[in-house]
Amino acid sequence: MTEQAIADRDIADALCEQVRSAYDARTPLRIVGGDTRAFYGRPVEGQALQMAEHSGIVSYDPVELVVTVRAGTRLSALQAELAEHHQMLAFEPPMFGAASTVGGAVATGLSGPRRPWAGAARDFVLGTRIITQEGKLLRFGGEVMKNVAGYDLSRLMAGAQGTLGVLADISFKVLPIPTATHSLRLSLELGEALNKLAELGRKPLPITAAAWHHGELLLRLEGGKSSVNATQERLGGEPLDAGFWRELRDHRHAFFTCSEGQALWRLSLPPNSPPLALDIPETDIFYDWAGSQRWVKTALDADTLRDACQSVGGHATCYTPHAQGGAAEPFTPLNAVVEKYHRNLKAELDVHGIFNPGRLYAAF
């Protein structure tokens, strides 16, 4: 019997009842899956809504490349099932621990090294079943069902951190695992590496991951065997163990260990952005996503980092909890127009503020 078969359990009715009771009593809920992503965002005070037991694969059609899974299902179990059919979640969701769940992966909306070439988490969500504020279980997305306000919630839920409703089931588009893969490293200084990445980005090459750190450009090639082999011969370099990309994805690489007084930040920038004018040693910056995502270990304040990012059209997110020395507001403050839309959406879908209150921003 597989791990997934053992974990197969539908507790949607009990979850709906708990949400319904919380709605009637105006009781805040803290939605909990594997709790491996609790560091991401602001802390939430509320009654725990435990999702981990709501697990199992509801349906899977390898021919149609579609799988529907309950939100509490462990990512490792889903990935093992997909791998048996030589398929995968193409957005490469991070796993910050063995208890990491599918619902948490979608709720945080985080994607791994393949993101710029394959797409983000929300791009692979076909549909969802969501528990609404009244404790109703409704289906959205794949069957084009919308609520009275006209929202398609499936994509809104990706990255909403549970503030708009409770993910019960998620349907994904999956993709075949590439038939060939090769990772390599090239010794290049930062300026040379960024120029190289810009050059490679203009060519139809089978690159699915690109990073730079401490004098090394790191690349992953995936696709047909002939294409991968030809590109490998063209680029040269030294072989790189494929496990490197999992360590980067899951923050298990040695880089992610911060010194005392440092916080870990993710800088999200437009493609081909130059190095930012920040007083940070080169060894404390890790360039991912061909330079569009940059991990930074620093004691610099939030305003300094965010001003530098905004000057080139980007933003900065703090991954270190405030209690451990991180920023009080982990996410970039919203401008007045965007904040108005956020407030209106929250008021429509969570009128009493019971779903993960304050998780994204203190006001909602």
UniProtKB/TrEMBL annotation:
Entry keywords, A to Z: FAD, Flavoprotein
MF-aspect GO terms: catalytic activity; FAD binding
Keyword Isomerase: no
Keyword Flavoprotein attributed: yes
One Pfam family named in its UniProt record: FAD_binding_4
Limits of the FAD-binding PCMH-type domain: 1-177
UniProt-listed SUPFAM superfamilies: FAD-binding/transporter-associated domain-like, FAD-linked oxidases, C-terminal domain
InterPro entries listed in its UniProt record: FAD-bd_PCMH, FAD-bd_PCMH-like_sf, FAD-bd_PCMH_sub2, FAD-linked_Oxase-like_C, Oxid_FAD_bind_N
Protein's recorded name: Glycolate oxidase
Source taxonomy: Bacteria, Pseudomonadati, Pseudomonadota, Gammaproteobacteria, Oceanospirillales
Gene that encodes it: glcE
